[in-house]
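Dear support,

I submitted the protein below through the web form. The confirmation email said the job was done, but the results page showed an empty box. After a refresh the structure appeared. I'm attaching both so you can tell me whether what I see now is the final result or a partial one.
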Amino acid sequence: MENKELKVVSVNISKEKGTKKKPNKSIILDEYGVKGDAHRIASHRQVSLLAKESADEFLKNNKDFTPGMFAENITTEGFKLNKTSPLDKLITTQVELEITQIGEECHDSKYDTGKKVRDCIMLKEGIFARVLKPGEVKEGDTFTYHPRDFNFKIITLSNRISRGDYEDISGPRIIELIQNHFKDKQRKINISYNIIPDDQDTFSIFLEKISATKTDVLLTTGGTGIGRQDITVETVKPLLDKEIPGIMENIRIKYGSKDSNALLSRGVSGLIDKTLVYTLPGSVKAVEKYMSEIFKTLEPLIYMKEGLDIY
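What the results page shows now:
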């Protein structure tokens, strides 16, 4: 679902929390959300949106839908908004919104036509966004939907593989595991792949470029041992803005209790600017074990690095 359009059916404001919002001719968005709205706050939940399609289906003709009745700031028409994902964008000629949350906890069943609170429409199909570009939104405007891709970079470090002495198995296996992980998710992924020698200068050049290329996740394989040629950890660690030691510590403890060789890797993980970096061993079996653990926290960390603590 790429670059689809959404028509703005209504823009709505409430002066008090817990009440229906009333349609207005237009609303003004700034860094705190909707001017004049009771829910205006400096958080990731600045603007609430609901698709008319969701409201109509939810009510099932038992009651006519009135924009704002579910406390949404912006009522849209075009497709269901719960088909979007955090970090996707909605853009008009004036305004740019970034989606930050799908659904919310319902605090009051007053507007759910007698259904249980767990069936509240905002819980299932409403979304929230933060304002990236302030401006005016009015009835009849059009949002263009821009899905956010996740960008991965895979680097295999090996003198022998880079010379062509051996075929790389671990790098392609990481790619395969990532593709399988995201196969059934509403998220497009882009993956780049390089093989380089165990050379600190060559590797440093790649690391310097990751911020400019908007890489979300960098995964390396090879060079985490104690050999003279193993320079991966020494190159990465000084560049980390924030280390996330628990991930690699957990992997070493979990697998090291069964196989002492798992304790020999010096792999690290952390952030370089806004890029998550994981240094994995060169063994394909180790790669499979490491990735199974990394996937457990990967998406929450991607959202957290973008300022969304939504897990």
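Response: this is the final, complete result; the empty box was a page-load delay. The chain has two domains: 5-146, 150-305.
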